Amino acid sequence: ALTNMGERCLYNVPRLMQCEAPALTNMGNGCLYRAPVLTQFEIPTLTTMGVFCLHYADSLTQFEAPSLTTMGNECFCHADVLTQFKAPALTAMGSYCLCFASRLTQFEAPLLNSTPHHLRRFNTPPKPTVKKNIAL
Length: 136
Hints:
By secondary structure, the chain is mainly β. 0% of the residues lie in helices and 18% in strands.
């Protein structure tokens, strides 16, 4: 089973509509760059995405990756019709991810330590609680 995609795998694939890889854990830089008709993306074991993955995924409306922990810069940039992004295990996201995803209405990444400025309306990390020790 495929567990790793090297750099630029499935790069500029104008007719790819569906991607399923049940054992894939790593996508190298530029994978699925310019997949304009991709509508279905099911990779439940994916943990790492390199830079520019799914850049210009013009037809993808939903993305859910329960195991994804790390995304490189500019993933999903210009994903014009993406409305839902769910990555409950995501802890690190590079710069400009989801940039220009203008229809995004749901962003779920509860473990993300810091959210890029253009996504802060969806997921602002809670402010730390300060407890003071008071001597009696």
